[in-house]
Write a structure and sequence with these properties.
Strand order of the largest sheet: 1-2
Number of strands: 4
Low-confidence stretches: none
Strand content: under 5%
Radius of gyration: 21 Å
Length: 275
């Protein structure tokens, strides 16, 4: 599933709403979905009966009713009388989202086989949607080739990316030795933990991609890194939250111009709801 089309979160008069060719070929006039209240959620899940424990039966396909209500489980917290009246009933783990977005970004720009969001199926989706046709698969006899995208790094650029992280020197106490996470022989990053991704996306990726990719793509990636940097500051001015949110939505729209729809999984979309 792809969470594509973040133009709906922009102001009504924003220029990105009318740019058809840069996005999905349609002018965006919609509005972001309205958050459901606790009472509305309870009304949707009241007909669901939870089955606890492991089920030996194969999980059947979602019924028509389940696809409409968009829930397959009723939270036990709704047994509390006051729960449906709470304005905030859940919290999104920032570090979990940050780690997944970082891994998603790294495996895509480095085109790591089996993990990258850019593959044959993702390119075939472009043909079905009728967008970015210059990136559609091309056949040469029995072989199928995938045109190089603007965010793909060349072999030399990948080597430079890994060397930058391997030879990086930082002040004592800033961070652990990142070279232990870089394998130059296999040309990959190994055993990345949550804090590794935390430092990577906030500080190291903008440094490692300097001079690579087109400037507009590098600018969009750097803006995404700056969002997580601003969000995780020790001291935050509440008055700046609205501007940070607006910048994030603009950044996601910029990424939609250059990256494939398959890149925008639920973790990338959840960044919209972190503030």
């Amino acid at each position: 599933m792809s969470y594509y089309g973040h133009q709906k979160y922009l102001p009504k008069d924003h220029k990105f709403r009318k740019q058809r060719k840069a996005f999905d070929g349609k002018e965006e006039n919609g509005q972001p979905p309205k958050p459901l209240s606790g009472q509305e959620v309870l009304a949707r899940v009241s007909c669901i009966t939870n089955e606890w424990g492991k089920s030996k039966k194969k999980t059947p396909k979602a019924s028509k009713l389940e696809s409409i209500i968009a829930f397959n489980k009723k939270s036990i917290f709704f047994d509390l009388e006051y729960w449906k009246y709470l304005y905030v009933r859940h919290c999104i783990d920032v570090m979990h989202v940050e780690k997944n977005v970082c891994e998603n970004l790294v495996v895509t720009i480095l085109d790591i086989p089996g993990k990258s969001k850019d593959g044959l199926s993702a390119r075939m989706d472009l043909e079905e949607m009728g967008i970015q046709m210059e990136l559609a698969p091309q056949k040469d006899g029995e072989k199928t080739y995938l045109p190089t995208a603007c965010y793909n790094l060349s072999k030399q650029e990948k080597k430079q990316f890994y060397m930058t992280l391997f030879e990086l020197k930082v002040p004592e106490g800033y961070y652990s030795n990142f070279r232990n996470r870089v394998s130059l022989e296999e040309m990959k990053l190994i055993s990345l933990k949550s804090h590794d991704c935390h430092t990577l996306i906030q500080q190291l990726i903008p440094i490692a991609i300097r001079g690579m990719m087109p400037k507009k793509v590098r600018y969009a990636i750097t803006k995404l890194c700056m969002f997580f940097n601003a969000l995780c500051n020790k001291v935050m001015n509440v008055n700046t939250l609205d501007s940070i949110q607006e910048e994030l939505v603009t950044t996601l729209c910029l990424l939609e111009m250059y990256f494939l729809p398959a890149f925008f999984d639920v973790m990338v979309h959840l960044t919209v709801h972190l503030i």
